[in-house]
Write a structure and sequence with these properties.
five-stranded antiparallel beta sheet, Interleukin 31 receptor A, mainly beta, repeat, 324 residues, signal, Immunoglobulin-like, elongated, membrane
Length: 324
Amino acid sequence: MMWTWALWLFPLLCKFSLAALPAKPENISCVYYYRKNLTCTWSPGEETTYTQYTVRRTYSYGRKHDNCTTNSSASENRASCSFFLPRITNPDNCTIEVEAQNADGVITSDMTYWHLEGIAKTEPPEIFSVKPVRGIKRMIQIEWIKPELAPVSSNLKYTLQFRTVNSISWLEVNFTKNRRDTDQTYNLTGLQAFTEYVIALRCAVEESKFWSDWSQEKMGTTEEEAPCGLELWRVLKPAEADGRRPVQLLWKKPRGAPVLEKTLGYNIWYFPENNTNLTETMNATNQPLELHLGGESYWVSMTSYNSLGTSPVATLRIPAIQEK
């Protein structure tokens, strides 16, 4: 009798031991794509058999419920499921749990709780213009269009990133716009003069942890200013037969000067160190410039100019012939 009982029980034990329940869904994450859908994802584990997933949701503050179904044969979307309008209301609290089922049984994830405004994600803003404000130096004003599908009941926080057109390093500023604020502009200050900048913008509902994608980049240039000072140096040549010395002047913009800075010309004046009454003046539009000086020491000064003004003076001493 015992042998008969054992033979009957043995196949059942083998079947039970070979049963492979699906892995418990873990790491549930949900994003509310505002006015589009609520999408939840999870870690499904390594399933070796066909597995069906059912996402169970309560919404409307627990008064309603519905389901969303997918399966392990749905390629890359097998661990994702979405709920669509009109069954999404905001603001709202909802619960999500994921049930995994295969031929051997069912297993359910832990219950998760979501506040929709805390997981809302909007479209990126659209930058409308990036331009200088006339008369205000080293500043550009960014104007944008707020995402059409953005909650009217929430403030929006923004991150603005910027860099010079020749740089690969971004800088960022953060600010918040009140939901009642119709002025969608930001004044970016402390920039370099007459320099082209690349601007990008993103936004998020103030309560949300999800940022929009970055907007398309847009470029703008700060206002031009009077030129910066020059770096000036000289090349001394041997004295000529009449005793006069050719001196070649060379110059360049200082480090950090605006890349786009325009110069219309240069004013040069020079005089013997001990006699300012013998000052000579001249104008140049390019370099190098050659002066013919006497044997004594001289002072040479130079400024550059454009339509907006004149640079600070750059001064250089030319030593006398007998000086070492």
